[in-house]
Design brief:
alpha/beta, TIM Barrel, 6-stranded parallel β-sheet, two-stranded parallel sheet, elongated
């Protein structure tokens, strides 16, 4: 029994020793494996560290180069700033000189313009004085000499334009090679005056507003109105106009409602101011009444009233409401031509066909 126990103990001890040996070997193998893995990981880390150090070294080199480049750029920027300041200073000096030259040029141009304007005004004043002299000379001619000068002359005149009918009127005049005189107002399409002028027609002043209550309330208001239409016409054709027609004619009585005696005053003032005012001796009757007036009636009025006269100044109207006047115009021209009249335009020295002033 005692031997059995010893034998059993020996077996157990042997088993324990084997187990310990196996465990130790297993631990040694495990530790060896971990050591190998650790060494490999350490090697990898050393490689990464070496790569990182290389990168750091490379970046450090690049940083140094960039810093050097920055220093160079700063130096160049300083030089450029100095050059910019120098150029800016030079530009300021040149700008100042340019401004000075521009001021001198402007002053010279202004002086030249003033001189030219003064010379033009002097020339215009001289021409106006000469025209006024001619007007007075014509108006003081003996009746027989006036009649001799005007024999068989027809002055076709149109009041109250330009209007929407003006282009058609001009077309008809062009077709018949007839020249006319347009006494214009300031409320129409003034650009049509350029065509009138270009095609050889005469332009006269009628009124700017055509408001009797205003223009005939005082000589001051009449002259202000006349000045307004005069400027508008001059702007279009580039010259002053010296022929006029009083709204309603010099013998109108409507003016008496607003200022007694004003037509007497104005008819004396106009020649003294260098204007020739023109009335008429043949009325076409296209404004004798409101409403529709047939073209045949306008034609008949004109031709019948022109008979027996050595010269005629025909009153027609170029207003927007006068469509039948345009329709009558061809037969009026043809009829007057058959009667032996030749067509001319009114000038500042044309006989005035003056009415006897009634106010």
């Amino acid at each position: 029994m005692k031997d059995y126990m010893k034998s059993r103990f020996a077996i157990i001890l042997y088993a324990v020793i084997v187990l310990l040996i196996v465990t130790v070997v297993s631990l040694i193998i495990s530790m060896s494996s971990k050591t190998t893995a650790y060494n490999k990981n350490l090697s990898d880390k050393e490689k990464e560290l070496s790569s990182a150090n290389a990168t750091i070294s490379e970046y450090s080199s690049t940083i140094k180069e960039n810093a050097s480049q920055i220093d160079k750029y700063k130096s160049d920027a300083g030089k450029m700033q100095s050059e910019i300041e120098s150029i800016s200073s030079e530009n300021a000096s040149l700008k100042s000189q340019l401004t000075e030259l521009a001021d001198k040029k402007a002053a010279r141009t202004k002086a030249q313009q003033q001189k030219a304007k003064a010379e033009a005004q002097k020339k215009a004043d001289k021409a106006s004085a000469e025209t006024t002299k001619k007007i007075k000379a014509v108006l003081t001619l003996p009746k027989e000499k006036q009649a001799k000068q005007l024999k068989n002359v027809c002055y076709l005149t149109f009041d109250d334009g330009p209007s929407k009918h003006t282009p058609k009127v001009l077309d008809i005049l062009k077709k018949y090679n007839v020249k006319a005189t347009f006494f214009v107002i300031g409320t129409g399409d003034m650009t049509l005056l350029k065509r009138m002028e270009k095609e050889g027609h005469a332009i006269g002043l009628h009124s700017n507003s055509h408001e009797y209550s205003y223009i005939y309330s005082s000589t001051k208001n009449y002259l202000l109105d006349l000045q307004s239409i005069s400027k508008k016409v001059e702007k279009q054709i580039g010259k002053k106009v010296q022929i006029i027609r009083f709204p309603g004619g010099s013998n109108n009585l409507v003016s008496k409602k607003y200022n007694v005696g004003i037509m007497t005053k104005l008819s004396k003032m106009m020649p003294e101011m260098g204007y020739n005012y023109i009335d008429w001796n043949v009325c076409a009757g296209d404004a004798d009444r409101s409403g529709y007036i047939p073209a045949s009636e306008i034609t008949s009025n004109t031709l019948s009233r022109a008979k027996g006269k050595s010269s005629i100044c025909v009153l027609l109207h170029d207003a927007s409401a006068k469509k039948t006047t345009v329709e009558a115009l061809p037969k009026i021209i043809e009829g007057l031509t058959k009667m032996g009249y030749r067509f001319e335009v009114i000038t500042p020295s044309t006989n005035g066909y003056h009415f006897k002033v009634a106010n």
